[in-house]
Amino acid sequence: MGEIRTATTADLARVEEIYAIAQRFMVASGNPNQWGPGFPGRRALEGDVATGALRVWVGADGVPAGCFALLEGPDPTYARIYDGFWIDDGPYLVVHRFAAAVQGRGVGSAMMDWALARARERGLALRVDTHRDNGPMQGLIRSRGFSYCGVIHLADGSERIAFCRPYIRP
């Protein structure tokens, strides 16, 4: 079906397109406030490429159709959680800036499954957050066994709901 690989600078223009498509989808599906136009910005993407955090899902045609950042914890925005608690307070990976250019074709599922497999291989929990209005992302998260943990605040003060898929120790 496709593969997930580490993004390169050659992918950046297409990745920006993917985020623009995803932002329009979010607006159309009742989530106009999570990402504004131009999110996440070229500088953030270049940083993700430089650190090897940015991943792309590439189909048989060789064109990226999805992207996300997979980062090592600890994440400073996860240091304080409100109205709940982290169900796994051990080491973790974080999925951020998760976007697909097409909906309903399994790209998001493939990307999340890949991230979960990396966490499992390393014996780590996987954390993710999203906007309250992002129903499609919440559906994907819940379908993959994540549990709601509480509310976190981004550096700009924006509220997000936070989820964790704990590492199941053998």
From TrEMBL:
CDD domains cross-referenced by the UniProt entry: NAT_SF
Keyword Acyltransferase: yes
Lineage of origin: Bacteria, Bacillati, Actinomycetota, Coriobacteriia, Coriobacteriales
Pfam families associated with the record: Acetyltransf_1 (PF00583)
Keywords from the UniProt entry: Acyltransferase, Transferase
Species whose genome carries this gene: Olsenella absiana
Ranges of residues in domain N-acetyltransferase: 2-170
Domain of life: Bacteria
PROSITE patterns in the record: GNAT
Transcription is among the record's keywords: no
Gene3D superfamilies assigned: 3.40.630.30
PANTHER family noted in UniProt: AMINOALKYLPHOSPHONATE N-ACETYLTRANSFERASE-RELATED-RELATED (PTHR43877)
Protein name: GNAT family N-acetyltransferase
